[in-house]
Amino acid sequence: MPLVRIDDAADPRVADYRDLTRGARAPETFVAEGRLIVRRLLGGSRFRIRSVLATERALADVPDAVPADVPVYVAPGELIRRVVGFPFHRGCLAIGERGPEIPLDAILSGRRLVVLEGITNPDNVGGVFRSAMAFGVDGVLLSPGCADPLYRRAIRVSMGGALRVPFAPLPAWPDELRRLPDAGFTVIALTPDGGTDVAELGVTRPVPPRFALVLGAEGDGVGGAARAAAHLTVAIRMAAGDHSLNVATAAGIALHRLMRR
Predict the structure, then answer these.
(1) How far apart are CA 5 and CA 27, in angstroms?
(2) What is this structure's pTM?
(3) Which pLDDT belongs to residue 76?
């Protein structure tokens, strides 16, 4: 891999990494942050990588499989911190290119989907993608207003799941939900007042061969239109009292049960 030494924080070659906390990025790019995330971007990801910025120590964690035309910028940790604009200790970053969106029909060719409605918190979106990757979900669909899965924090929380699990927007929400039953999916809404205990899935109640699990934002939950489109509503039963679960945690529990086939 071509190594380029950087000794000036103002070097224009690392402009893509400058002041990351301000969020003013080229719209066609995203940032992968940390050794593990960069490795997952480089291996098994559909995204093209534009460059890598790493400390000398972190170079051992950057695979030799970096394409020959991708520069690897090497700089001291303190200089990287000045470039990115925050105390950075994860060794390396990379710039990826978003590329074209995956067509909805390609997502609908899978068997196990997650649908996010109005989840605006990047940490929650990242957490759902982490569970989606762990449990072999084939794709994620997002309603308008959801946080960007390729936002830097969402990628980091997802442990690279947002780079591995295909996703597509549903701009004509909620009308496009109708495409799911037409494509053979059983739509399952996860909601606190669901009529079926999620623990029954795969035990006393069979798991549908093709399903789409709908998750709503904390507070608002799954909306009325999505609930009306659902074939089944499920709940995670908890101890008596005023309890609730983070939506990413709830997604992990529900997906674990849905994989009991």
Answers:
(1) 27
(2) 0.93
(3) 94
pLDDT value of residue 97: 96
Catalogue all structural domains in the chain, each as residue range(s) with its CATH number. Answer: 3-97 (3.30.1330.30), 104-258 (3.40.1280.10)
Q: What is the predicted pLDDT for the residue at 159?
A: 96
**pLDDT beneath 70, residues of the chain:** 1, 23-25, 241-243, 261
